[in-house]
Structure formats: structure tokens, C-alpha cells
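Co-fold these.
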Amino acid sequence: MKYKNNIIFAIAKSLLNTLITLGQMIIKIWNHKKGRIGLILVVMISLIAIFAPFLAPYDPYDVLQRGARGVGPSTEYFLGTTSYGQDIFSMLIYGARVSMSICIITAILISFTGAIIGIAAGYLGKLPDAIIMRVVDVMLVIPTLPITIVLTNLFGKSYAMLIFIFTLFGWAGLSRVVRSQVLTIKNTNYVKSAELFGGGKWYVMTKHILPGVSNQLIMNTAMTAAGVMIAEAGLSFLGLGNTEFISWGKMLAEAQSSGAFLLGYWWWIIAPGIGIFASVSAFMLIGFSLEEIFNPRMKSSNSQYKVLKTLSGTYIKELFEQMEAADNVGGIENE
Amino acid sequence: MADDIKKAIEEEILIEVENLSVDFPISRGLAWWKKDIVSAVSNVSLKIARGSCVALVGESGCGKTTLANTLIGLITPTGGKVRYKDQDLYEVSNADYKKIRNNMQLIFQDPYSSLNPRFTIKDIISEPFRIRKNISELEIANHVERLLKLVGLSVRDKDRHIFNFSGGQRQRIAIARAIALNPEFLICDEPVSALDVSIHAQILNLLLDLQKELNLTYLFISHNLAVVRNISTHVAVMYLGEIVEYGEVDEIFNNPIHPYTKALLSAVKDDDPIILEGDIPSPINPPDGCRFCSRCYLKVDECDKDHPELLEIETDHFAACNLIKKRTA
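Predicted complex below.
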């Protein structure tokens, strides 16, 4: 029996390979100090988002039911209520669903499109490269906010619309980064050798180039997720976010529009702020740790030591010693 | 060399290069419509017989690697022909070309960049099989084991990544990959110059053993004359894109004709070597006359104008020099 020509076998094998690479990546992140904090946070927030209906004490969409409006943090309402009487703790838990899912879906979509377009431009070269790169140039200079306002007004404000907008304006930068990496891999001798054996474009792209840029892609996915989280909050705050579900950005927007700042409902503002801060820093930490794993020269330990040295006085002490040494040299010359 | 071997070599011409030229247009400055031409290889003719090892020597930048890359098909030439067993490489159909290309392979200079660092040894050596042939995993595994044994590596290492290996071992892996599809013609592009001196002999002996075992034909690019003397049967000396002298290895080493070859050999042999003045001139718009005339210590006036042809001075010994032409005329 020939397994090689069996499509299901091939798909299963490639899936397994991807899982193994991801597993190895997660182990690497776990062994890294920054990465471990980020990983724990992301997993925690994701679990909260998945099991939101079991964790939330109240229905966050439950408006004007109990009559407890604008109550501060208490034993009954862990993080207080809004001026409409919604439980903020429940809103925070449900908001994680929208915010996290938009982040992860958009980050993956951007990585896919950016990778495919970047690899195609870099490897095919010549005319396709020229065309794609001009499109990328245009995409990079388009002002995002006015276009977003136009698009949301035309097609409505929704969850899918947000993902579409973020992907539309996100892939160009990544594809440029990927292309530059592809150009270096393309000129290595192992790619030339594969071409000498008759390896076609598809073979080289999938076997040599995609694995070569995968590190960069995974790192970029983490960083993009953090960026999307902030962008989602920003758009929702401006009233351009989705209208269906609660998200952290939308909580902030509602707080602002119903005068939480004036009424002194600080819990309404701080809760989603902490959610956004925690998830953004979690993604950023994972991104930084991956950067250091893939490129050990990026390690920031050196500068940290300098600060410590200065604080402990040894740095200044060394400076004095150097000055004394310089004096001694001058003294000998004078004699 | 024994006469019977000599005869066997003369039996069949495997590769025939005829007036091969490779020019690269480059534009300089703001005038993009004005193209200067770098003639990397110009009018090279070469015959490589089956079972022989032709060494290509010359200093850096003289077009050795460009010639090799053109033969293997990585660069399209601007003129000339390459024949493989009487089939013109640039005129055959695509299917035939693929078949021919199965029989030609290249060993790269640097084993650190010619092997993908993400692959295991097994992946690297089995790559040709996966690309070219539709064969089962079991057969591939058998082939990999056979090839690893052939180049003297342990079969246990097949699942390791290449960063575990030294330069010499990497070059063995690269050789194993190159001979995977049983090629007849192998181009070795300075296969030992990136390696430690202590490893040179191992790799060269491996190449010699493989030549006997698999009946290979080599085009061996090098600038190490000691290596060339050991391994090759013929030597072609290149200067600035042209072959200036060609002949059997003993003949070239004992009786060099061209002043450039003499200078090269004296650098290795003599206590008082001939020192060439100046640098290799730019291949952009090269001189009309002899290309070596700017550095030649035997230069006469006509060298500036007359371009010497590659002439058969003695049996199977070719040289391109105006002085020799005068002497023979």
C-alpha cells in the first residue's frame, strides 16, 4: 500500500508536524522567564473567556433588572455595577470572549495572508514582486481611521467587520518583513541545490522557505495580537466597534458616554483597563521572549547589569579606579 | 598514465563545451540605458571525457564558478553550446533535459550554507529521491543507509541535525546528496577550500574512491595546485574568463607553456617565484588584445592588439599566447 499518495495521510502528517513544532515552541516559551508569565496570562484569560457562562455570577446583558445602579465594589457585586445596573465582573468575564477571540483570529489571519503574499513576492521575484510591493506601499500609506469610519458606516458595525478591517490594514507590513527574509533564504545554496535536483517552486516554497520564515511568523503573530487588542479597544471607544457583544473597549466607551468619569464610578473604568493591560502585556511578553529565543543577541541583560552596577556603586567605583590609573600614568611621565 | 586507461578516456566525450560565453549586463550611474558588459566567461571550449577529472584552476574572479554554474544550468549563457553525449543542452525537449540533469550534479564550496540547518541528515540525503522519483519510504531509507555507508558516515547519525557535524562531515553529507541519483558527471566547486587542511586529504580520497566505484567524471574547480595534481587527469587554466592553457596534468606541471601557468606553478615549486605585478583587470569591457598582457612579464608590442587563440602546441596540449604562436610559426 502506498501511503505517500494518500491525501488524508499527507494532511494528518503535516498536521502532526505543525503540532509538534507548536509544542516545542510552547516548551521554549515556558522555559523563558518573560515568556512564562505571558503564557500563563494568555492561557488564564483564554480559559476565562471559554468558560465565561460558568464563571460569571450574573448575566452581563441584564440591564435594569435588579435596580442596583452604580454600586461600588462589594461582596454582592465583586467589581460593582454600571449606571444601568449591569454587573461589571460578569461584563469583564464576557468581554474577554470578544476581545481575545478578535485578537487571536485577526493575528492568525494576518500571519497567513502576510506570509503567503510575502513568500510569493519574495520567491517569485520580477513582475509579481513589483506588483505586490507597490500594492503593499499603497496599503501602508492609507490612513486607517477615515477608511474604517467609511467602511463601518457603509457595511455596519459588527464583529466580522472589525476582523476584516484589522486584516485588511495588517497584512502589508508583515508581508514586507517576510519578503526580506525570503530574499535571504532564496539565495542560499541549499535552495539552489533543491532547484538543481528539479525541485519546483511549490516544493521550495513549502519545504525550505516557509519553515525558514516560520519563527518570524510566530513571533509576529504574538505581537500582532497585542496590537489588535489595543486597536479594538480604540475603535470600540470611538464607537466603531461591534454592536452585538460586550468587549473591554466597548465597556470603556459606555463608561465614558454615560458619564462614569463625572459620577466617580472608577470601578467601571479600571476593570476593563486592567483586562486590556493584562492581555496586551501577556502577548507582548510572549513576543519579546520569542524574539530573544530566536535571536539571543537581543537579550537585554547587559543594560540591566549596567543599571544594577550603577545602583550598587561598583560602576562609580570602577570609574574612580580608572581615573586614578590615568593619574598614575601621567605622574610617571612627569617624573 | 597507463596506455589502456588513456585509451579508455579517449573513447567517449561526455561533456563538450563549445564557444561558451556568459555576459552580465550592468548599468552604472544615472544613465540606465547605457549597459556595460561584464564578460565573466568568454569563448570557452572544453572537452571532458568519460572517467576523467578535469581541473579548472585560476585566481578568484576569473569565471570558474560562473562556468560551473552555466554547465549545471543555474545561469543561462549568452552564447555557445554545451553538449552532453551529443545532445545539445539548450535545444533538447524539457523531458530530455530533466533526464540529462539527473546525470549532472554540483558539490558546493561551503558545506555550511549548502545544507538546510532545519533538516536532519536523512531529510537532506533523501531530498533528491523525494523530488525526482516516486518511491516508498522504505526504499528511501535503504538508499540513505547505502549512501551514508558509501561516504563513510555512521548510519546512526541519520536523524541528527547538521549543526552536530564538523565541516568535513558536512561535506561528506553534501557529497552523499550529490551522488544520490547516480550521476555520471559531478562538478566540484572548490569542495575542500572551506575545510580544515587536515580534512582535505580525507575528502579528496573519498572523491577518488567514488570515482572508481561509480565511474564518475569530475570537473574539479580549485586554486590549490597540490590538490589538483593529486586528483585530476587534465588541467585547464583560466584567466579573466578565458582558458589560457589546457592539457594533461603531468604535461602542464612539467612543461607549462603559458606565462600565467608558469607563474602559478613557480609560486608553488620554486624558491624564487615569478611575482605578477598588479591585480586582475576588471572584466567590464576587457582589452581587445591578450587579456593577460597587463600583467605579463614576457609582453611584446603585438600583445596589445592581437588576441591569441587557443592552439594545440603539442599533442593534447593547448595554449593561448602570442609568443608561442610566433615560435611555432
